[in-house]
Design a protein that fits this description.
286 residues, alpha/beta, Cobalt-precorrin-4 Transmethylase, domain 1, Rossmann fold, 3 domains, 4-stranded parallel sheet, 9 helices, 12 strands, flat, binds iron/sulfur cluster, metal ion binding, iron-sulfur, 4-hydroxy-3-methylbut-2-enyl diphosphate reductase, iron, 4-hydroxy-3-methylbut-2-enyl diphosphate reductase activity
Length: 286
């Protein structure tokens, strides 16, 4: 089987690399200072990464159940949190450490600036996603949050509006949502803040262009089925070529592939590069 694996199509994004480095450094600091590290949102949508962090001493916690953390560390993931949550953590005596991606911080800032300027904030994204909870928190939980493109037709706006997007969604859907919102509210000033992460968008576009040019028989997208950017990458490529979304090498069966197939292996931004390389090796031996 011919396997194509190119560095630009897989591995962690800079935001996640940075937050994992912060986590590694914090493990050493905690060891030195005899402290524990708590978190409540996975740093990456990836089991292997989570296991590694837990081995290093990370412990999941429900902060509502903590009354006094006695100065133990709490690490905020790349997705960010609201200012209110940081205050709550501090009140409970956590020492708050941040691994928030600068791109996510920037999105929070954009939303907050528009909110202060009197805009109604609409967020196109998943209301339960930590990033969206954080962005909504930066505008006093006042945002209207919508995940479905067609919902744009149903929202009635009564003042100038800024439309923010979850960083890991697709531009196509966001643009369609904004268009629907504009059609439903023709007299309202609607400002589209395309806050999609350029790394996510760039990888989707590069992979799609490669598929069109090189015409592999099948694409294997490595990543978690709960990761937004991985699902988005897989769904975009599935429109061009048969595509499999694979969480780990254990899911691969030789019988799923025909002989002499050319497979392009790519990944979402939270899949560890070592996992992607293991999968590519396994495929080569089919
Ligand atoms: S996908 Fe983009 S926004 Fe999300 S952590 Fe990575 S660099 Fe940051």
């Amino acid at each position: 089987m011919k396997v194509i694996l190119l560095p630009k199509f897989y591995g962690h994004c800079p935001g996640l690399k940075r937050s994992l480095k912060i986590a590694d450094d914090l493990i050493l600091e905690a060891e030195k200072n005899g402290k524990k590290i708590y978190y409540d949102v996975p740093l990456a949508h990836n089991e292997e990464v989570e296991k590694k962090l837990q081995k290093g001493g990370f412990q999941e916690v429900n902060i509502e159940e903590v009354t006094d953390a006695k100065g133990q560390y709490f690490l905020i993931s790349a997705h960010g949190v609201s200012g209110q949550k940081i205050e709550k953590l501090k009140k409970k005596n956590f020492v708050v450490k941040s691994a928030v991606c600068p791109t996510v911080k920037h999105v929070q800032q954009i939303a907050q600036n528009d909110y202060v300027d009197g805009y109604q904030i609409v967020i196109f994204g998943k209301s339960t996603h930590p990033e969206i909870i954080g962005v909504n928190g930066s505008v006093d939980d006042s945002a209207t949050i919508v995940a479905d493109v067609d919902e744009g037709f149903k929202i009635k706006l009564n003042k100038k509006t800024s439309v923010i997007c979850q960083t890991t969604l697709s531009s196509d859907k966001y643009d369609e949502f904004v268009e629907n919102l504009k059609k439903a509210n023709p007299k309202t000033k609607i400002v589209a803040r395309n806050t999609i992460c350029p790394i996510v968008e760039g990888r989707v576009q590069m992979c799609a262009a490669h598929v069109v040019e090189e015409k592999p028989d099948i694409v294997v997208v490595v990543g978690s089925k709960t990761s937004s950017n991985t699902k988005q990458l897989a769904s975009k490529l599935a429109k061009l070529v048969p595509t499999m979304l694979v969480g780990s090498e254990k899911e691969l069966e030789k019988s799923d592939f025909e002989k002499n197939t050319t497979v392009l292996v790519v990944s979402g931004t939270s899949a560890p590069p070592e996992e992607v390389e293991r999968i590519a090796e396994k495929l080569k031996n089919f």
